[in-house]
Amino acid sequence: MNLGRKILVVGANGSGKTTFADKLSRKLNKTHYELDNIYWKPDWQETDRAVFRAEIEKITLLDSWIIDGNYSRIQDLTIGRADTIIWLDVPYLTVLFRVTKRSLYRIFTQKPLWHNNRETIGKLFSKGSIILFASRTFKIKNEKYKSHINSRELPENKWIRLRSNSEHKKFWRELTA
C-alpha cells in the first residue's frame, strides 16, 4: 500500500488520531506532528493564529510528514498538501466513551498533556470541557469530511476512511504486506 510521503490523520476528538498517527509514523519511519502539541502552550494558552499557521506552513512544505488533527483554519495546508488523508470515522458513542475515559485517566493520574498542561475535574465540568467539545463538534466534523469525500475536489484515492475495528485491522495488514 503506497500512502505517499505526506499523510494527514483526521477524525473526531477521541477517534484515536494521535495513537494511530504515532503507530503509523513508527511503521513508515516518518516524523509525526500532533497539531494539538503545536497549538497549545503552557497554562492552556493558545498559539497566535498567524504563528500557528506559519509553523504548519513550514511543516507541510517538508518532504515527508504525518500530521494528526483537524484545525479548520489550516486545513488548506494540511488537506491541501497531503498525499493521503486517513479519516478515523468512529461511532459517536465510542468517541464519547474514549474521551471520558481518557480525561478521567489523566485527571486521576495527573498525566501531563502538551507542555505540562493537565486536565482537572473543574475543567471536565466546565464550558470548556473536552467531553462537551467532542459532543458538540462530532457531527460537524463528520459532515465536513463526508462533504470533502463526496465533492470530488480531491482525488478519491487520496482518502482512506476507516469505520470499524475490522477496517483498521485490514489497513494494518495491508500496510505491512
Task: Describe the protein's architecture and organization.
The chain has 177 residues and is of the alpha/beta class. The chain has one domain (6-164): 3-Layer(aba) Sandwich (Rossmann fold), CATH 3.40.50.300. Helices cover 52% and strands 15% of the residues. It contains eight helices and seven strands; from the N terminus they run E-H-E-H-E-E-H-E-H-E-H-H-H-E-H. Strands 2-5-1-6-7 form a five-stranded parallel β-sheet, with helices on both faces. The chain has a two-stranded antiparallel ribbon with strand order 3-4. The longest helix has 22 residues, at 130-151. 24% of the residues are buried. The mean pLDDT is 91.
In short:
The chain is an alpha/beta fold. β3 and β4 form a beta hairpin.
Give me the CATH fold name: Rossmann fold
In the CATH hierarchy, what is the architecture at level 2?
3-Layer(aba) Sandwich
Topology order in helix (H) and strand (E) letters: EHEHEEHEHEHHHEH
How many domains? The number is 1
Widest β-sheet, arrangement of strands:
2-5-1-6-7
Give the C-level CATH assignment: Alpha Beta
* Portion in helices: 40-55%
Mean pLDDT over the full residue set: 91
Number of strands: 7
The percent range for strand residues is: 5-15%
